[in-house]
Amino acid sequence: MSSGAVRYGSLDLLRGIAILGTLATNIWIFTNPEGFIGYLNGSTIATTPPAWRAVESVLQQFAQGKFLGLLTLMFGIGLELQRRSAVRAGAAWPGRYPWRAGLLLIDGILHFVLVVEFDVLMGYAATGIVVAYLLATTERAQRAWMIAAATVHVVLITALTVVLAVAPVAPDGNPLDPNPYADGTWFDLVLFRLENLLVFRLEPVLIIALSIAMFLLGALLVRRGLLEPTGRRLRRTLMIIGGIAFVADMVIGLGGGIAGLVFTRYGTAPLVALGILALVVEFVERRPERGFVGRRIQDVGRTALSSYVLQNLVASAICYGWGLGLAARLDPAARVPATIGIYVVVVVVVVTAAAIWLKRSSRGPVELAWLWSFERITRALDRRAAHTARASATPS
C-alpha cells in the first residue's frame, strides 16, 4: 500500500474515533434528566449510588476533552491537506476556502438550533477561516502564531483553574423548572437554546486560542511527516507525551474537583489527543489492513459530518421528552449502566447507517448537501468572474 493510501486510511479511522469519542463525553449530557444544564450543575451526583458514581467518574474522565482535541487536530490536518491540494493545482490559497468555512458555519448554526446546544462546528468554522489565512504565511510566522495562541490559552486556563480551586463555584441545586429536556417539545428546546445562546456558546469563545493553536499544530505535524512512514520517531515522541499526559489527566481530573476537570479538559486532554493521533497513525502504518471493527469506524470517518449529526439526533430521540424521554424515566440507581447501554445502541445505529449508506454513495448525506451547495457557489463565482472579465475587455 502506498504512503498516500496509508495516510488517508489513517485519517478516516482517526475521524471515526474522534466522532464516536465525542459521543462518549456527550452521552452523559443526554442521559441527564435536565440535559446540558443538569450536566453543568452536577444534578445527578446526589442520586447516583457511590459505586456507579465512581464508574461514571472514570468513564467521563477517560473521554473528557481528549476526542474533542483529536477532532480539532483533524480539522487542522484537513486544512493543510486542502492547502496542499490547492498549491498542486496552481490555485491561490485560501482562495474560496472562506466559502467552505461559511457553509460549515451554517451547518453548525442549524445543528446548534435544531439538534444540540454543545455543537462544535460553529467554532471550527470560525477558527478555520482564521487559520486558512495564517497557512498562507511563512512557517516561521505560523509557529509564532501557534506559540502565542497556546500561551494565551495556558494563561487563561491556569487563571481559571486557580480561581475555581480557591473559590469554587457552587452548583445550582435548584431543579430546572420548567424542564424542556424532559417535558418540552422539540420546538421548546429550540427556543431554550436561543434564549440561553450566550451560556451555550461560551465554550467555543473560551477555547478559541486553543483551537487556533491545535489547527496550526495539526498542519505543522503534516509538514513534519507525521502521516508518512518516515515519521516514526515523531509519532513515538508524541505517544510518550500523550501517555504521560494521560496519567496526569486521570489523576488530576479524578481528584481535583471542578478545578481539576477544567484543567484536564482544556489543559492535559489536548496533549493526550496528540498521543492518540500518533498511536492510530502508527497502528495503521504497521497494520494497513483493517478488521471488521476498524472498517466500521472508518466508515464513520468517511461520513464524519453526517455521523456527528446523526448520533446527536438519535441520542436526543432516545433521551429527550420529544422522543422516548428515557433520561427522565430512568431510575437514578440505573442511570450509569443505562447510559453505557444507550451509548452502545447509538454507536451501533451510527456505524450501521454509515456502512449501509456508503454502499450507495462515496459521501455522507450531509457531506453531499454541503458539496452540492459549494459547487453552486463556485459556479456562481465563476460566472461572475467571467462576466467581469468580458466587461473589462469590452472597449468603451
End-to-end separation in angstroms reads 59 Å
- Count up the helices: 19
Strand pairing plus helix content: what structural class? mainly alpha
Q: What is the beta-strand fraction? A: under 5%
Could you name the ranges where pLDDT drops below 50 across 5 or more consecutive residues? 1-7
What does this entry look like structurally?
- With 396 residues, this protein is mainly α.
- The chain has one domain (3-387).
- 78% of the residues lie in helices and 0% in strands.
- The protein has 19 helices and no strands.
- The chain has helices at residues 3-30, 35-41, 50-63, 66-88, 97-114, 121-134, 139-166, 180-183, 186-195, 197-200, 202-206, 208-223, 232-255, 257-286, 292-302, 304-319, 326-329, 335-358, 365-393.
- Helix 1 (3-30) runs antiparallel to helix 4 and helix 4 (66-88) packs across helix 14 (257-286).
- The longest helix is centred in the last third of the chain and has 30 residues, at 257-286.
- The chain is globular.
- The relative contact order is 0.15.
